Amino acid sequence: VSGFVKDIQGIVNGGAVVRNFTSPSGVTTDVLVNGPVNSDGGTLKGVEVAYQQTYDFLPGFLNGLGSQLTYTYVDAGDFNNSSLGAEQSPFAGGLPLAGVSKHTVNAVAFYEKGPLSARVAYNWRSDFLQTPRDVIFPFSPIYGEATGQLDASIFFAVTPNVKVGVQGVNLLDEVTRTSQVIDFDGTRVTRSAFRNDRRFTFLARFDF
Question: Is the Cα torsion angle 89, 93, 94, 99 positive or negative in sign?
Fold first, then answer.
């Protein structure tokens, strides 16, 4: 079990700033420039609980089983995002740090015995702010919705130097969704959805 507190300043986010330029002919004008900006800082705090064990006390072939479990809670703070530029949504203030989920769970079951090696892993995270300022009008904050993914692999050692196996990614065919903030109450509506499909890879590994 571990706890942490982080004081963060100068967060890099996408934003817009007005800059004054003078042309070769001497004409001066203000130009809106989109790009990364160092926005406000804030404080992160949280706790992580982890457990890992190989069940070698089990009888026979079962003693190759094991598990890894991790849960993380993060309070992503309250960031004003005041330096995102003129083209920012009025809903951008007081948001958590982008990219941080409040809850994250990782659960792994594995088997290691003799020539056989197998692993199943499920990773889940709660919703999180992707950006306080979208790149298109009305420049509202965008969230990634809660999502989880199940991956698995199995390998067999044909010889001490050769392994064959298969890996599967996104076995549950999870759809990744984003949402957009539309009012001061934090109401969100679906903005996009992506299906990455299941993917299988057949592998042969050679060690020399």
Answer: positive
Q: What mean pLDDT is reported for the chain?
A: 87
Instruction: Identify whether the C-beta of residue 192 lies closer than 8 Å to the C-beta of residue 177.
Output: yes
Contact 17, 37 (CB under 8 A): yes
Give per-residue pLDDT as tens, 63-119. Answer: 999 999 999 999 887 665 555 555 567 777 777 778 889 999 999 999 999 999 999
Is the model more confident about 132 or about 174? 174
| DSSP calls for the chain | -EEEEEEE-SEEEEEEEEEEEE-TTS-EEEEEEEEEEEE--EEEEEEEEEEEEE-TTSSGGGGGEEEEEEEEEEE---B--TTS-SS--TT-TTBPPTT--SEEEEEEEEEEETTEEEEEEEEEE--EEEESS-SSTT---EEEPPEEEEEEEEEEEEETTEEEEEEEE-TT-PEEEEEEE-STT--EEEEEEEE---EEEEEEEE--
pLDDT value of position 74: 93
> Which pTM was predicted?
0.76
Tokens 């007081």 found at: 94
For 148, how many CA atoms within 13 A lie in the half-sphere containing its CB?
12
From the list 83, 82, 52, the residue with the least C-alpha distance to 70 is 52
pLDDT at 38: 74
Closest among 77, 80, 92 to 44, alpha carbons compared: 77
